[in-house]
Structures are given as structure tokens and as C-alpha cells.
Amino acid sequence: MIISFLHAILGTMRLRQWTKNIFVLAPLVFSHNLFSDRLAAALWMTLAFGLASSAVYFFNDLRDRPLDRLHPVKRLRPIAAGRLAPATAWIMLTVFALASLGLAAFSGGPAGLAFLGAYLVLNAAYSLRLKAVAYLDVLCISAGFLLRVFAGAAAVDVPVSFWIQVNTLLLAAFLGFGKRLHELSWVDDGNSVLRPALGGYRRRTLDRLLLVFQVLIPLAFLAYTLDPVSLRHHTLIFTVPLMAAALYRFHGLCAVPGNWHSPTDRMLRDPWFLLAAGGWICSVLWVLYR
Asked: What is the rounded CA–CA span in Å between residue 216 and residue 218?
């Protein structure tokens, strides 16, 4: 009984999706503070966004129960499947939201609290309405990633450079449009009702957008490495090929039709993506901290 309850809670929390909160650590890493006393604050802020994202998943699953029951994979989620009572889910949602706000205030002060609060409000609006509007839905996703970066900067008390902001928005949009391309594989099967925004997307348009982003993201990162303000980062230029390889692989994973796993699940299981992305992260750390 207790084990099944905990399994339902953990399943709704979507711990695997917490990997997205690595963006919170970007200001820490690129400001050369990874091994400083600011690491603890950044980790607390990362945990705060993990709990906040789980609160958002609880809210989304509660709101989308009827539609989730029609989905071949989402119908297995604890709330949609009836393994987690709505009253219990509301309690957990409240606990996670309050805990995340407390941790954000503790680790990032008023600024950190404001950024995480904005993240919760943005995602509530996304779940209630904005996710049904094509392109605006991905813009909201991108804004959520940017708020993670700003909160991480507040935790370690460093500014966020212009090019880091640009790279974050471009990469987040690339991930968001990739997810929509992946989801389009089942629209033709009469499932567009499960994601209303998909009616505003076209596969060819998304494919071209992703190709454009595959060029823009490395170029924006190159601009960051060559910026005079980022004098210590010039040698990061040699990490760009690995970044480009990871982007290319992610696009390929999203373009494969007929798979119900999310792009996040697929990329975390794909050895070629993990090799390219892991290699890029390791090479960045080596360049910055060697």
C-alpha cells in the first residue's frame, strides 16, 4: 500500500524531467564558481526548481485527466489511472509549491523567490490556456528555461550575459519545437484533440525551424566565446562540434514517427546523443576549469 502510494507520487513528480533544471547551474559553471562556496546555493536553487516543476506536473495532470485517459501512454499516469486521488494530488502540489518557494528564497533571496514565483505563474497560465496556442506554447517553455538561468544567477550572485540569455532562449525553443515535431507523429491518427496546439503546426515547418536553430545555436555560442567580455572563454570554440552533433542527433530523434516516448526520455536512452552531449559538457568543464 505504502509502496504503491510512493510509486504514484514519484511517477507524478516526473523525476526524469528534472534534468531540465541543469540550466539553473549554467551561471555557476560559466562564472567559474563550480568549486566555490556558491555551489551549495546553486544546488538548493536547482532543487527548488525541481520541486516547482513537480508541482506544475501535478497541476497539469489534475487538469488534463479527461484527455490523458485517451492517450496511449498518459493514461497510465497515476492520476489519470486512478492510482492517486485528486485530493491527495492537490495536497502534494501545495507542499511542493510552498517548499520550492521557501528554498528559492533561502538560496536566492528576494530575486530568486521572484524568479521561481514567476515560473510557477507562467506554468499555471501555460496549463490553463497558453499550451493550446501554437508557437506561444513554445515561447512559454523558452521563458521558463530563461527564468531558471536568472534564478541560478541570483543564487550565486552573478550577472547573466546577453549571449547566455540568447543561447538559453534558442536552445529552449529548439527543444520545444523538437517536442512538437515528435508529437505530430500521432496527429494524423486522429489524436490532435490530445494536444490542441498541434493543429497550428506543420511537420515541414517544424523541420525547417529545427534546421535553422541547429545553425543559430552554435553561431550564438560562438559569439559568446568570442565576446570580449568573455575573454576567458575563447577556447570554448573548440567544443562547438560536439554541441552541433548533439543538436543534430536530437533533431533526428524527434523526427522519428510512431514512438510514444517523450523526446526527453528518448535522448536520455540514446547512446549517440548521450555521447555527444556528455562529451560537450565534459569538454566545457575541462576548458573552464583545467
From this structure: 6
Q: What is the CATH number of the domain that holds 90?
A: 1.10.357.140
* Mean pLDDT of successive 10-residue stretches along the chain, which has 290 residues: 86 90 95 93 98 96 84 81 90 97 97 98 94 93 97 96 94 94 69 69 93 96 85 85 95 76 78 95 93
Q: pLDDT of 193-220, one tens digit each?
A: 566 778 889 989 999 999 999 999 999 9
Specify whether the CB–CB gap between 87 and 94 falls below 8 A: no
Rounded Cα gap, residues 12 and 212, in angstroms? 34
User: Hey, what's the cell of 81?
Assistant: 489511472
**Residue 148 domain boundaries:** 1-159
Q: Which of 133, 159, 185 is the C-terminal boundary of a domain?
A: 159
The cell numbers describing 40, all together, are 551549495
Residue at which a domain ends, from 138, 159, 180:
159
72, 105: one domain: yes
pTM of the model: 0.92
DSSP-derived secondary structure letter, 227: -
- Is the CB of residue 212 less than 8 Å from the CB of residue 175? no
Asked if residue 202 and residue 140 are part of one domain, the reply reads no
